[in-house]
Amino acid sequence: MNDTFLRACMGEKVDYTPIWIMRQAGRYLPEYQAVRKKVDFLTLCKTPELAAEVTLQPVDILGVDAAILFSDILIPLEPMGVKVRFLEKKGPQLRPVMRKKRDIEKLTVINPKRDVPFVLDTIKLLRRKLRRKVPLIGFSGAPFTLATYMIEGGSSKNFLETKRMMFSAPELFHSLMKRITETTISYLSAQIKAGAQAVQIFDSWAGALSPDDYREHSLPFVKRTIEELKPLGVPIIYFVNNCGGLLELARTSGADVIGIDWRVDISKAITRLGKGVSVQGNLDPLALFSDEGVLEKKVADIIKKGRRARGHIFNLGHGILPQTPPEMAKKLVQMVHELSG
Amino acid sequence: MNDTFLRACMGEKVDYTPIWIMRQAGRYLPEYQAVRKKVDFLTLCKTPELAAEVTLQPVDILGVDAAILFSDILIPLEPMGVKVRFLEKKGPQLRPVMRKKRDIEKLTVINPKRDVPFVLDTIKLLRRKLRRKVPLIGFSGAPFTLATYMIEGGSSKNFLETKRMMFSAPELFHSLMKRITETTISYLSAQIKAGAQAVQIFDSWAGALSPDDYREHSLPFVKRTIEELKPLGVPIIYFVNNCGGLLELARTSGADVIGIDWRVDISKAITRLGKGVSVQGNLDPLALFSDEGVLEKKVADIIKKGRRARGHIFNLGHGILPQTPPEMAKKLVQMVHELSG
Q1: DSSP secondary structure of A205-246
Q2: A164–B289: do the CB atoms touch at under 8 Å?
Q3: Which residue among A179, B190, B271, B295 is least enclosed by CB atoms within 10 Å?
């Protein structure tokens, strides 16, 4: 198996910079669209054969150095007691919204084997299919990011209700965060036990918080999650979107790898993160709409700067956009391998 | 006149920390709503008596230390040759979108006296009405931020078309940026000559760029703008939204004051900006949905940290939200004055 990705996570010597792409199994790939046409999004997530099929597509088509489970961060919220609907164009809708004590107190911590067996089955199936290929990454949303969906009832621009609760009823907010954290721990532990060889925690909305609020209302729950997962012995990646103000704090999470977005210079980020962690990132996803020459210059720069880190996994600074030409994603993987090898 | 704001901009001694609020004349105020009910948004911008009336409202109601011209950053784009419509809920719509050479070449540099006399008349009217009160701030969008609206045809989530042009046709992009920059210079110069006692350049979307792209595609045009305005002798504030990765670069803009958003710690920002500039910011606009005790803690913290800057103007880290209770805005102004005095 190509273990370059796992080695980079732990800061071990590698022959080249490994790469995978956030949302690499997704709408920009015609092969994904073909599968997706047959079933709705939730059915795709919940059918191991299909979820495994789309997970493998970018491994074969792009030649990335890791596969990531095809699923959605909102999947574990359903068995907690929240009805989740994925509406085309409008994004996810979650009901009831979690703003009242009596609703929050009804939430349960999930039992993955009973509640999300399809996720564990997908992982087991994938491990068999990936045997001589690349490692498999499992994932979940970070507690704060999941909380925003539960409180807002979907995506949000300003996180008005989340912050209103955080600033005016912090105990209530923390009681919700604790429940989500326990579910996250249970969910990721089960993924690792089923065969995930690394896990990524997506804190997609942490960057909406001031550093002080992040320290108080998000970070402790990430720390607790990572603490519980550490004994399971797989690399833990903590992706902090819009991390520019948060890196010094994110470093204390205990993660083996900090994933960063493109709005920071990776060289400066490495300095701020120090020698104790590997770094993942951080090409602007929109760079895949460049001329090849412009793309190559950007990729070479990130690879060069990334060498200063304990370990560097190349990735985009956020998920690949549905409009991305697949040939540019292929080109990117080739470039990273050639320029770093 | 209360010149505390102007003194803080230039790093002179002040008796307390001055405060104004981005979008302080706006929808959260019932008094604004009352005026707005009578006319549409563009008519309000273009009628000096009404624009002046809503500009003055927060000065009287909140007791802020500066007034800011009521207008919109898209106003100078109309006389350049772009049709701008403000659609309720859907946001602005600009046509034609600027993606082709022949469209960009048709754009003209505005002549403010001829093209936007209502802006200059509003400023003159306001200076008379503000005589013994507070200074008046003029403003414009930064060239990059204005370019995104022109290229996308409105607001945008990912700036796909803007970055596509930037990365695949940089000369074309720069030719658009140059035209916008000349308009911005002419527009702000005219505002200052009409009586604006400070100007703020809003780079609302600069934070969507990687630091390298910001250095190449946005900053030079801001620098050129500020260079041209400097001889006019009023303080220049450069607001960089989502500045976490950009502060060291923004510092080189030549502005007297750097406005920062709430996603960075103001103390760290001051260190990164150095002693040569004053700092404006940076309370999370959502903090106005807090308990008073929580708000006070946050305000006191920012004031304390702000003392390390050459000068500090208190502000939110982004515009005040329409849903904000007006009494919380009042409370904020009182708190800043009391805690810093």
Answers
A1: TGGGS-HHHHHHHTHHHHHHHHHHHGGG-S-EEEEETT-TTT
A2: yes
A3: B271
Chain B contacts in chain A segment 320-339 (CB below 8 A): 321, 323
Residue ranges of the domains in chain B?
4-325
Cα separation, B96 vs B17, whole angstroms: 44
What confidence tens digit (pLDDT) does each residue in B25-54 have? 999 999 999 999 999 999 999 999 999 999
Enumerate the β-bridge partners of residue B95: B83
Q: How far does chain A reach from its first CA to its final CA, in angstroms?
A: 18
Question: How much is the pLDDT for B45?
Answer: 97
**ipTM value of the model?**
0.96
What CATH topology corresponds to A4-340?
TIM Barrel (3.20.20)
Is A27 one of the catalytic residues?
yes
Q: Which fold has domain B4-325?
A: TIM Barrel (3.20.20)
Please say if B291 is a catalytic residue. Answer: no
- Summary mean pLDDT of chain B: 97
Q: What is the pLDDT of residues B110-156, one digit of tens each?
A: 999 999 999 999 999 999 999 989 999 999 999 999 999 999 999 99
Distance in Å, alpha carbon of B246 to nearest chain A alpha carbon: 8
Q: Is A103 part of the contact surface with chain B (CB cutoff 8 Å)? A: no
Contact A289 B159 (CB under 8 A): no
**B210 vs A262: CB contact, 8 Å cut-off?**
yes
Cα distance from B286 to chain A (closest Cα, Å)? Answer: 6
Percent of chain A predicted with pLDDT > 70: 100
Quickly count: other Cβ atoms within 10 Å of residue A268's Cβ. 15
Question: How many CA atoms lie less than 13 Å away from B232 in the CB half-sphere?
Answer: 22
Complete DSSP assignment for A50-64: HHHHHHHHHHHHH--
pLDDT at A247: 98
Pairwise CA distance, residues A194 & A124, whole Å: 6
